[in-house]
């Protein structure tokens, strides 16, 4: 595992713990010689995780669309900044660069990025781990929803098991290292196509 993509908020959130734990994730990535791939901003949790990696001597690749470059206050001190044309290109570039994906607390954009790579994992389009760094149990409601989806048979247990989650960065990265993706089979029967 050489590179991890991190999806997270461009705001710091209501609690200082969000930034503190994002910083710990960044420090852990640098310590384990894992390059951070993220959205390229210098603000909020995004900036905190990037700064932490850089402060510990690690490498950071930012990917930001041209139209957000100044709006999100792009980070000027990155190892590499990739400027793309669209949000779609941003997500595809990050997905291609990364060996796994972690979502920290964030808003709809963070969830949208996470859901896309999680869905791709369900469909067998990649076999990379997808995790939630569940800082202050931020993602408990989402994990409950996934459990509900599974109970209501809109998601298989093996797909729910794809969702790796922990409250501590180091433990989550360890789960990534031992992750075994499930066998993927076709969802639809021939009559349904």
UniProtKB/TrEMBL annotation:
Pfam families: Lysine_decarbox
EC number: 3.2.2.n1
GO MF term set: hydrolase activity, hydrolyzing N-glycosyl compounds
Superkingdom of the organism of origin: Bacteria
One GO location term (cellular component): cytosol
Family classification: Belongs to the LOG family.
Protein name: Cytokinin riboside 5'-monophosphate phosphoribohydrolase
Species annotation: Virgibacillus pantothenticus
Organism ancestry: Bacteria, Bacillati, Bacillota, Bacilli, Bacillales
